[in-house]
Design goal:
alpha/beta; eight-stranded mixed beta sheet; 8 strands
Length: 272
């Protein structure tokens, strides 16, 4: 049975492992398809597509695009058939990454003001895309006695003193942007959406929904599958891998897309 994990992160954004390491883990898990979906960057995913693609493990170009809807961060997964005509999108994403750096420095100031954390920001020069996850990792690396969960719950999570949104791109425009470059737009981890109606979001033109996700609660997958049927869209599965055994995400291969679900996705993307 062929299996796909279509949501994972590397050191090109806030993942803990390099492209080669992530691809190696995927092979160890016996996956047949993966997508590298770093935040607001295609650089790593394109590199993996060009250099690490194989017959046993096929790599699908992807990204996780940040958007905002009604004051809540909504993530949109984008998947692309090949690397043709993506230069314009990468130029747009470069502007998004610049905004992320501006946000990172605002977060630094707030962390010092409210929590007396004086973060050395030199680490952002090594990253293509600076996320809140990157900042949380760095707080811990620089010796402050907090867990990643505490940092998000008390400091940089939505509604916390050091929270700033990463983008002003609204969700409708995020979907349109992915479509403009020939991609398929998928609503990421709908089980984490708190202040928006998932059904209303799907009416914005999404092609799919990440119905299979490690943090789903009982009956979530069934609910999302019903919505997929209502809107005539496909379902996907993704571990959202960042590092092993972290509290917020899954491990590679914890969930996977299989059978008819996988066939439908590959046919929509026109990938064999």
């Amino acid at each position: 049975m062929k299996r796909a994990d279509l949501h994972m992160h590397t050191t090109y954004s806030d993942g803990s492992y390099t492209l080669n390491e992530v691809v190696g883990f995927a092979k160890e898990k016996g996956l047949n398809y993966i997508s590298i979906t770093d935040h607001d960057t295609l650089v790593g995913s394109l590199k993996a597509y060009k250099e690490l693609n194989g017959t046993d493990l096929k790599i699908i170009i992807g990204l996780e695009l940040s958007s905002d809807n009604n004051g809540e961060s909504i993530h949109v997964l984008g998947y692309f058939k090949n690397d043709t005509n993506l230069k314009g999108l990468d130029s747009y994403l470069e502007e998004q990454r610049k905004l992320r750096r501006v946000r990172a420095n605002k977060i630094k100031e707030a962390l010092y003001k409210y929590f007396n954390i004086d973060l050395d920001m030199s680490f952002i020069e090594k990253l293509y895309s600076v996320t809140r996850g990157s900042i949380a990792n760095e707080i811990i690396k620089q010796g402050y006695p907090y867990t990643k969960e505490e940092i998000f719950a008390k400091m940089i999570g939505e509604g916390c003193p050091a929270y700033y949104p990463s983008t002003k791109l609204n969700t409708i425009d995020a979907v349109k942007l992915i479509h403009e470059y020939g991609g398929l737009a998928v609503l990421a981890h709908p089980c984490l959406i708190k202040h928006n109606d998932v059904s209303e979001l799907l009416s914005y033109g999404f092609d799919g929904i990440e119905a299979i996700y490690p943090k789903n609660k009982e009956n979530d997958e069934e609910r999302f599958r019903k919505l997929a049927k209502k809107y005539n869209i496909f379902v996907t599965a993704g571990s959202d891998f960042h590092s092993f055994n972290d509290e917020k995400h899954g491990n590679i291969g914890d969930v996977s897309l299989t059978n008819m679900d996988l066939e439908i996705f590959l046919n929509k993307l026109e990938v064999k």
